[in-house]
Amino acid sequence: MTPTRSARAAAPDAAAPLRPVVVAGWCVTVLGVAHTVIGLILTAAHVPGWFTGTLWGVGGSLASPAPTLGAFWLTVGSFGVPLATLGLVIRWMGLRGIVPPAVVAWTLAVWCTVAGAMFPSPFPLLWIPAVLLIVQARRAARAGDGPMRAEAAL
């Protein structure tokens, strides 16, 4: 018989969920999903063309893509889907009491800073989960406990 959630939580070896990590994971997931969904809404007129082969024969260049190709790269071909996936992985880790390595947080922080400086957009919102993850990585490194090694807390 599989132990219930409350039985697992009461077990002395069960890792307690890390709320800041779970919240950070949700933030990253929501931003990735929002980017993809809003992009699909804004480019809905071009979506049917994706299924008729127009992506293969469109003109333009990387610097100025055809609208159908640009719509693809703004939505399902963009960073939105991998960002949502990263958010779900971070959430999964937080629910298991695992602190993601600080390199994940610092990469998010640098990326959203550089991209946000180049283009006014919601990129700076990624600072919220990045800071939550940086703080948790430092706490885990100082405490020296759990599955987080001090070396991972850069």
Radius of gyration from the CA trace?
Answer: 20 Å
Mean pLDDT: 84
Strand content: under 5%
* Total E-strand runs: 0
What letter string, H or E per element, gives the SSE order? Answer: HHHHHHH
Describe the structure.
α6 (102-118) packs antiparallel against α7. By secondary structure, this protein is an all-alpha fold. The model is unreliable at 7-13 and 149-153 (pLDDT under 50). Helix content is 60%, strand content 0%. It has 7 helices and no strands.
Offer a few descriptive terms.
154 residues
Protein topology:
Layout: H1 5-10, H2 19-42, H3 47-50, H4 67-74, H5 80-95, H6 102-118, H7 127-143
Helix pairs in contact: 2-5, 2-7, 6-7
Question: What's the short story on this structure?
Answer:
The chain is an all-alpha fold and 154 residues long. The chain has helices at residues 5-10, 19-42, 47-50, 67-74, 80-95, 102-118, 127-143.
